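Consider the tokenized backbone below.
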């Protein structure tokens, strides 16, 4: 008889799958954090989103999202300085 669900085979498999998924997501997030400033610099230099995606392996949607957030921050800082 099983007294603890953690002792079951199903739990052990699910736990390992969850751990592997977490590690994969962590690696992807870390990779994205390294590539973010590079992609933003390229956007600032007017590289196309398509080219940035091809060179970095990032998705165009991610690059667009970062570009929009970056321009919003820049715009709000510019407004604060003008006041």
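A designed sequence for it:
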């Amino acid at each position: 008889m099983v007294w603890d669900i953690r002792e079951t085979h199903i739990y052990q498999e699910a736990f390992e799958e969850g751990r592997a998924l977490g590690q994969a997501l962590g690696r992807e997030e870390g990779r994205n954090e390294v590539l973010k400033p590079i992609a933003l610099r390229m956007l600032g230099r007017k590289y196309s989103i398509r080219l940035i995606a091809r060179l970095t392996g990032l998705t165009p949607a991610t690059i667009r999202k970062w570009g929009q957030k970056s321009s919003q921050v820049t715009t709000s800082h510019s407004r604060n300085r003008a006041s």
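The helical segments are 9-44, 49-56, 60-82.
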